Amino acid sequence: MLRRTFWFTAGAAAGVWATTKVNRKLKQLTPESLAAQAANKAVETGHRLKDFALDVRAGMVQREAELGEALGLDAPVADDRDRELPAPRRRAALDPTARPTTTYSIPTISYNRNEDH
Predict the structure, then answer these.
(1) Do the beta carbons of residue 96 and residue 108 sit within 8 Å?
(2) Chain centroid, CA 113 distance in Å
């Protein structure tokens, strides 16, 4: 009798444990949960990429300073925001007075649906 009670209790406990595990897994696989997990991973990846970019930028500034020191350049590194765009260059081939005056016309094709039958 004690054996039967033991095995009955062990079976019931295993059933409750398995049911709990299956229900948790089913909740993880719902569309809302999958979307939340994907969003969390995307945010985490974005933070990692931002940290990587900041590390690269800091390394670039450090290496630039080392190279400037090694080459004897005492000028401070110019901030990218202070730079201006270069003046536009004029090309002789694109002179407005030398433009050809070619006009293109698109041929019109009439389409009659009755011809298909």
Answers:
(1) no
(2) 47
Q: Which two tokens stand for residue 92?
A: 């002789």
CB 61 within 8 A of CB 77: yes
* Whether the predicted pLDDT of 90 surpasses 80: no
Contacts of residue 27, Cβ cutoff 8 Å, sequence gap at least 6: 33
| Maximum Cα–Cα distance across the chain | 110
- Annotate 28-43 with b (16+ C-beta within 10 A) or e (fewer): eeeeeeeeeeeeeeee
Q: What's the pLDDT tens digit per position in 33-76?
A: 999 999 999 999 999 999 999 999 999 999 999 998 888 887 55
What is this structure's pTM?
A: 0.43
Residue 30, CB-side half-sphere exposure with 13 Å CA sphere: 8
The tokens describing 105, both together, are 């016309």
Count CB-CB contacts under 10 A for residue 97: 4
Residue 29 three-state SS: coil
